[in-house]
Amino acid sequence: MIATKKDIPILREGGRHLAEVLKAVGDAVRPGVSTDTLNTLAEKMIRDFGDIPSLIGYTPRGATRPYPATICISINDEVVHGIPNENPSIIKEGDVVGLDCVLTHKGLLVDSALTVIAGKGDVGAEALLEATKEALMAGIKMAKPGGYIGDISAAIEAVGVMRGYGIVFELGGHGVGNSVHEEPYVPNVGDAGTGAQLTPGLVIAIEPMFTEGTPRVKLLKDGYTFVTKDGSRAAHFEHTILITENGHQILTEL
């Protein structure tokens, strides 16, 4: 999507709505809570804003059925796209919980994710989250007009290498705005100066995913949940950003 002047206020407002939803759901993550309860909270908040949950009924390329929930909730070794409402999980103390959601506001879509720890986490979990969030901000810093997608990818990869984490390279960010997934693809590894050029108005979702072990993932039988191949824990952070004339704007922050 290349946003027009008319689109930008809509994207900003939708982004703030989504940020509020994710903050509320993140605050509600605690031991003993069901993932289905969190999904219900996310849907209620989105509809109360007058917005539409974009993931319900969405069938991405390669999927055999529509996604059945409002929010993706991925726990511990689940990297992304965990289904919260078909076989709900009860969150336990110390669980690493990824929350990923998309909403449609006045016809335009925004996408964001964060990872939280239920209750008290161990030092390893806290470090994993810190590094993944650092990688997101490093990637965003490189998002500016005249640059390239590869600049973002290289910045994310550099943080993962420096911190010693597995960098999930089989999944990545993407364009967003008119649909959930658009071009260009935004890998989490790559070379600076390569890939599509960043131009003012471009709307993209940047989403690093780090693991404590292997970077390789596998898809579960539910058709959506990706887990680490070695069972190691994973973290995921994401923002939708707008490339501006002078740099970038994060659309999905409070």
The CATH C-level class name: Alpha Beta
- In percent, how helical is the residue content? 25-40%
Q: Outline the low-pLDDT stretches.
A: none
The biggest sheet, with number of strands, parallel, antiparallel or mixed sense and barrel status, is: 5 strands, antiparallel
Structural category: alpha+beta
* SS elements, strand count: 15
**From the 3D coordinates, which CATH architecture would you assign?**
Alpha-Beta Complex
The radius of gyration over CA amounts to: 17 Å
Q: Structurally, how many domains make up the residues?
A: 1
- Spatial gap, N to C terminus: 23 Å
| CATH H-tier superfamily | Creatinase/methionine aminopeptidase superfamily
Structure summarized in a few sentences:
By secondary structure, the chain is α+β, with helices and mostly antiparallel strands.
Description:
It is globular and about 45 Å long. About 30% of the residues lie in helices and about 25% in strands. The chain has helices at about 5-30, 35-50, 125-140, 150-165, and strands at about 50-55, 70-75, 80, 95-105, 110-115, 165, 175, 180-185, 205, 210, 215-220, 225-230, 235, 240-245, 250. It has a single domain (about 5-250), classed as Alpha-Beta Complex (Creatine Amidinohydrolase). It contains 4 helices and 15 strands. The protein starts with 6 loop residues before the first helix and ends with a strand. Strand 4 and strand 5 (about 110-115) form a beta hairpin. The mean pLDDT is about 100. It is of the alpha+beta class and about 250 residues long. The protein has a 5-stranded antiparallel beta sheet with strand order 8-7-9-14-15. Strands 1, 2, 4 and 5 form a 4-stranded antiparallel beta sheet that branches. The longest helix is centred in the first third of the chain and has 22 residues, at about 5-30.
